[in-house]
Amino acid sequence: MTEDSIQRFHHVMPLQIRFNDIDKFGHVNNSIYFQYYDTAKIDYFDNVCENVDWNKIAIVAAKIETEFIAQVKADSHVEALTRVTRVGNKSFQLEQEIVSTDTHEVKSRCTSVMVLYDLEKSCSISFPNNWREAIYNYDGITPNN
User: Fold this and answer.
1) In the CATH scheme, what architecture does the domain 3-139 have?
2) Phi, psi of 38 (to 5 degrees)
3) In the predicted structure, residue 22 carries a pLDDT above the cut 80
4) Measured between alpha carbons, how far is 59 from 139 in angstroms, rounded to an integer?
5) How far apart are alpha carbons 126 and 36 in whole angstroms?
6) Does 47 have pLDDT greater than 70?
């Protein structure tokens, strides 16, 4: 992790590169990065927020922007870094990076706007206050971010 990343990200999750993640060019296919980011997002919420019931609440993407900076190959050792940078009424902004654990090089960077969604009622929902406070405390952000 770069010094900048150490200061900005508190959630770090090691990633396992699977055989089927690799394309014919010998590197992780770009579509797989979104699976890595999703896995890290779920792990973030499971660790930071209490009482997440994934059978009732979903986190859906409204906007995703990803920058592919350097290749990740089959023998690479990488981890996903995740943080929330802003919390709105029903949405939040997520920033993530995939970083080499060997060289600390950022391989990919992703920013996304995510929406909380009630699976039973099929509609967006307001951000729970206990989740909001937990994220503010964990990532060190303020309500105005």
Assistant:
1) Roll (3.10)
2) -65, -45
3) yes
4) 18
5) 26
6) yes
Contacts of 113 (CB under 8 A, 6+ apart): 61, 62, 63, 91, 92, 93, 94
Residue 2 has pLDDT above 60, yes or no: no
| Beta-carbon contacts of residue 21 (< 8 Å; ≥ 6 apart) | 28, 29, 32, 74
Six-digit token pair at 126? 């307001």
**Exposed, middle or buried: residue 135 (CB in 10 Å: 0-12, 13-18, 19+)?**
buried
For residue 78, give every residue at least 6 positions away whose Cβ sits within 8 Å of its Cβ, in sequence order, or none: 14, 15, 17, 36, 72, 98, 99, 100, 101, 107
The two tokens of residue 67 are 């920058």
> With helix as H, strand as E and coil as C, how does 26-80 read?
CEECHHHHHHHHHHHHHHHHHHHCCCCCCCCEEEEEEEEEEEECCCCECCCCEEE
